[in-house]
Amino acid sequence: MTRVGGPLIDVAALTSWERKKLYRDPTRIKLAKGIYVRERDWWSLSDRDRAIAKIVATGAGVPGAIAAGQSAALIHEMPLKGWEANTPLEFGMFGATTGKRRDWTFRHITIHQTLSAVFVETEFGKVQVTTAAATGLDLARWHDLSLGVRGLDHALREKLATKNDIDGALRRAYGQHGVADMRNAALLATPWSESPRESDMKVALWKEGLPAPLQQVNLYGANGEFLARLDFFWPHIGLGTEYDGGGKFAGEHGVPVEVAAIKDVRRQHKISNLGVLNFRVDNTSARSGRAIPDLVAMYRRVEARGLPLDQRFWKSVGGPAW
């Protein structure tokens, strides 16, 4: 019985003649012990599919190994940073000595995490992975807090996990190194972040010590007309902020650049006329490192004014950011 599917080839499922034929094929690519793929099939796959194929192949080639960390995140379709095809492979096992193997990293996970792992079917075969909740927590402790929150926000939004699942996964990781980072990730996880950048902003705002804003807040005019939705909003001082993705003024969703720009100016006028201050963040300001310090400074100035926005003019679609 083959341990893999799709274009992957499991030598254990081949006859002696088929195995000899494969070994004579100069286009074969070895993905893991006993698992191969032919070049033409390999390069026909997308970057993401190649990453998934490597995870499945490695899992099949190492009995008992459980895809964890960034590898589990790819299986659960969680947003990572950088090119998916370059994501380092990570696997966990109870009692494993954490360290780098030939082309992947082994992680020690608790017996409770091991027993709660699930099997996920992919086009390349089944692979055992840590649960979505455990995966997000592991990202926070093994990599960084914002990556963990990205994963947990995605899991909650896509209903791959619940808050109870996250709390349960946190209990099962008791005593592990980095549990403080895991607790913080669990605290910050919500289903209301609509993009990875929003998750990153939430973590940055929390680190700066600001009070929790509301996520996904609708603004309305005096006649009840919907005006705009802000990613984050502090109603007690009438300050909001949102992240403008790179596609907003680049023809995203088939909207011409000129039309998008005009609509944005009109939208911003409506927000300003309501008496709301809206701090805009884009890719340039985020990468420069100035966005969050400038937003914090603006918050402090507006806080001193202390003018709340009347409840009639806003409604929270989500909830507190943490």
- Distance from N terminus to C terminus (CA atoms, Å) equals 48 Å
Q: How many domains in all?
A: 2
Describe the oligomeric state of these chains in a short phrase.
Answer: single chain
Strand order of the largest sheet: 13-12-11-10-14
Shape field: elongated
The amount of beta strand, in percent, is 15-25%
What string gives the helices and strands in order?
EHEEHHEHEEEHEEHHHHHEEEHEHHE
Question: In terms of per-residue confidence, which ranges show pLDDT below 50 for 5 or more consecutive residues?
Answer: none
- Number of discrete helical segments: 13
Question: Radius of gyration, Cα only, in angstroms?
Answer: 24 Å
Biggest β-sheet strands, sense, barrel? 5 strands, mixed
Which structural class do you get from the secondary structure elements?
alpha+beta
What is the average of the pLDDT values? 91
How many extended strands? 14
What's the helical proportion of residues?
40-55%
Brief characterization of the structure:
The protein has 322 residues and is α+β, with helices and mostly antiparallel strands. It is built from 13 helices and 14 strands. α6 packs across α9 and α7 (145-157) crosses α10.
Describe the structure.
Helix 8 (163-172) packs antiparallel against helix 9. The chain folds into two domains: 9-189, no CATH class; 201-316, Endonuclease, Chain A (3-Layer(aba) Sandwich). It is of the alpha+beta class and 322 residues long. The protein is built from 13 helices and 14 strands. The strands form four sheets. It has a five-stranded mixed beta sheet. Strands 4-5-7-6 form a four-stranded mixed beta sheet. A three-stranded antiparallel beta sheet has the order 1-3-2.
